[in-house]
Amino acid sequence: MQTVKVNNQTHVVDVPGDMPLLWVLRDILKLTGTKFGCGIAQCGACTVHMDGQPIRSCVLPVGDVSGREITTIEAIGEQPLAQKVQRAWLDHEVAQCGYCQSGQIMSAVALLANNNRIDDHAIDQAMAGNICRCATYTRIRSAIQDVSESVGVWQP
Amino acid sequence: MRTLVYGLLAYLMTGAGMSLASEDAAMLEKGKYLAKAADCVACHTAPGKEPYAGGLAFELPFGTLYSPNITPDRETGIGGWSDEQFVKALQEGIGPEGDHYYPAFPYTSYTKMPREDILAIKAYLFSLDPVEQSAPENDIAFPFNQRWGLYFWNLLFLDEGRFEPDPDRSEDWNRGAYLVTGPGHCGECHTPRNLFQAMDSSERLAGADLGGWRAYNISGSDSHGIGTWTEEQLVNYFRQGYAEGLGVAGGPMAEVVDLSLRHLNDRDLRAIATYLKQTEPQATGLPRPTPLADTLAAPEQPGLGSKVFAEACASCHQWNGEGNQSPAATLAGLKTVHDPKARNLMGILMEGNPASSLPVNHRMPDFGTIYNDYELSALATFVLQHFGGLDAEVTPEQIRERQAAALH
Predict the structure, then answer these.
(1) Cβ contact, residue pair A59, B300, below 8 Å
(2) Residue B293 domain flag
(3) CA distances from B122 to B16, B51, B115, B119, B128 (A)
(4) Of A28, B143, B186, B381, which has fewest CB within 10 angstroms of its CB?
(5) Residue ranges making up the domain that contains B137
(6) In chain A, which residues have their Cβ closer than 8 Å to the Cβ of B300?
(7) Which pLDDT tens digit goes with each residue over B110-168?
(8) pLDDT at B353 over 70
(9) Listing from the earlier edge strand, what are the strands of the sheet with A69-71?
(10) What b-and-e string marks burial along B5-28, b requiring 16 or more CB atoms within 10 Å of the CB?
(11) Is A42 on the interface with B (CB under 8 A)?
(12) Tens digits of residue pLDDT in B181-240
């Protein structure tokens, strides 16, 4: 039995401790907004927040997350900053096929939440681990820049 | 009366039979455990083939050796061997036909094992299913293919004899000493070799190179070895393959943890730690690094190396080297990021840490096929400069040489 706190709800799930968190999210808790991409922490599609930090849920054993706060794409919109990000994503029509986008948004929100100075280089560093098969990168950059400006942390 | 006699006989027979069976079972159990401690399977298994059936190639300076089949197959394995022959092979390095083994087979360590331990291993190996599989012929150049020459090598370098406990030391120390110098054969990789490819007894456990990897100094030295590691940290390393901020087992050592160390019981792991911490300090090789501040941030001026790091590494290791989601991903404090020759760094980048027995957040993908030698050298250079604070540079040539240096 494993205890996980996801989106402010505590769940007790009957799975082995070495099961990746992503499997628990998608297959047990049916939170399918988080996607499976590569399974080896190289693509970023499975990004969720653990205590506010972006992590790759495909390589995190669920046994290691007890006592931590997990936030997924389903609940990130409850945070004011994330609402701004989602708004900017719509304004810029960032998504194309959309598969990588929940991971992109989770990384973008963490970047904005954890930095008080953002420039192109900071975007490169924070977003490089999230890859997009449709190459929506320029729109992702513009959307992040917009939010950075609106909250006053854009310092090119 | 007759019934009573028969009953008594039956009781005696089954009783005796049962105790024999339980003795056999105990011996098998002991043999299985010692075979793990001696890590027989690592060398006697070819990739993708049956365990213990041999055939693994060893690329040595003077040619290629293949490990033999040690399953109980009578034709291609050791099924026809007597107890005497098996003991002689392990204690003296001499095969059933009087032929000398090459010391790639660590009989120079196994010689410390008493006959009963060796026979327990034999009993375990003989309980396995026989596999019919012949190893390829060794391809060894003259004069090294003249095995009789090893008679003289053994005279000089084989310290034939069993382990003798030191009555002035604790039971744990003695158990650790036996496991390290005997079945565990740690020195075979961690002790540098002399001109004649024999372990250099003046530099025991001081560290050595092997197939492109560096087996680090594991002597009791505080400055260069594992002297400052606590017993707990050493035991964690043996059991999980890492000790946070001190060391992560990669390459051949990851295999040792996977196939051997993690299967040993706590008491034995603790004994090994006790013994290693008290071995003669050898102040050679890479010194134990001081981790840089945990405030390391992404560089202001990105280069190719830091770009590759951002794409492939940062999400697990983080820019400050703390490790994002697993303490096993902590880079700060590792010798590997402080080695100007980048030996194990190149190895782990190219080969990764794929063991399926590892928890999912301890595995590392291999980047050797994803990035080219130019990108890998830039990445390795960035890691050494960023996490090691070194003024070092890794060239694409070094990456190519490292690729060619594989042991198997």
Answers:
(1) no
(2) no
(3) 23, 15, 10, 5, 10
(4) B143
(5) 21-157
(6) 121
(7) 999 999 999 999 999 999 999 999 999 998 888 888 888 888 888 888 888 999 999 99
(8) yes
(9) A9-13, A2-6, A69-71, A47-50, A53-56
(10) eeeeeeeeeeeeeeeeeeeeeebe
(11) yes
(12) 999 999 999 999 988 888 888 999 999 998 889 999 999 999 999 999 999 999 999 999
Contacts of B312 in chain A (CB under 8 A): 42, 129
Residues B36 and B117 in one domain: yes
Tell me, yes or no, whether B37 and B140 share the same domain. yes
A37 touches chain B (CB under 8 A): no
Distances (CA, A) of A1 to A13, A14, A31: 6, 4, 19
A60–B359 CB contact, under 8 Å = no
Number of CB pairs, chain A paired with chain B, less than 8 A apart: 59
**What is the arithmetic mean of pLDDT over A27-55?**
95
- Is residue B116 packed enough to be buried (19+ CB in 10 Å), middle (13-18) or exposed (0-12)? exposed
Same domain, B110 and B175: no
**Percent of chain B residues past pLDDT 90, beyond the cut:** 70
Residues B129, B214 within the same domain: no
* pLDDT of res. B378: 98
The amino acid at B64: T
Q: Provide the pLDDT for residue B17.
A: 53
- Return the number of other C-beta atoms located less than 10 Å from residue B310's C-beta: 21
B33 occurs within a structural domain: yes
B324 shares contact with chain A (CB less than 8 Å): yes
DSSP-based three-state secondary structure for B195: coil
Q: DSSP states of chain A as a string?
A: -EEEEETTEEEEE-S-TTSBHHHIIIIIS--TTSPP--SSSSS-TTEEEETTEEEEGGGSBGGG-TTSEEE-HHHHTTSHHHHHHHHHHHHTT--SS-TTHHHHHHHHHHHHHH-S-B-HHHHHHHHTT---TT--HHHHHHHHHHHHHHTT-B--
Percent of all residues in chain A with a pLDDT value above 70, rounded to a whole number: 100
